[in-house]
Amino acid sequence: MFTGIVQERGQVVDLLITGDGDDGNPGSARLTVRGASVTADVAQGDSIAVSGVCLTVVARTADTFTVDVMAETLRRSTIGALRAGDEVNLEASVTPTTRLGGHIVQGHVDGTGVITARTPHPGYDEIRIAVGPELARYLAPKGAVAVDGISLTVIDVTDLSDGAEFGVGIIPETRTATTIGSAPLGAAVNVEADVVAKYVERLLVVRDRERV
Question: Which residues of the chain does CATH 2.40.30.20 include?
Answer without folding.
Answer: 8-92, 111-196
